[in-house]
């Protein structure tokens, strides 16, 4: 089964630029497509879609990456059954 997930992270840190690179790399390794960016509310926003098993592994990766960084890190996760049709994984940095 396929899924799409949207993750919002708050309380992010000094190394969030490198984190976005790692997020993109992990998503591509898992065959996921979507985006990772800082949104208009200054939150790290990640949205990816693909196979359910890959989505589950990706969410665990993001949770592990945020857990020890800072006590104030908060994130929300929304799961969807429909795709938006992303063609690649993008990040908002050069």
UniProtKB/TrEMBL annotation:
Instruction: State the InterPro entries in the record.
Output: Acylphosphatase-like_dom, Acylphosphatase-like_dom_sf
Which PROSITE patterns does this UniProt record tie to the protein?
ACYLPHOSPHATASE_3 (PS51160)
Q: Note the Gene3D superfamilies from the entry.
A: 3.30.70.100
The UniProt record lists the Acylphosphatase-like domain at 4-94
What family is this? Belongs to the acylphosphatase family.
Q: What is this protein called?
A: Acylphosphatase
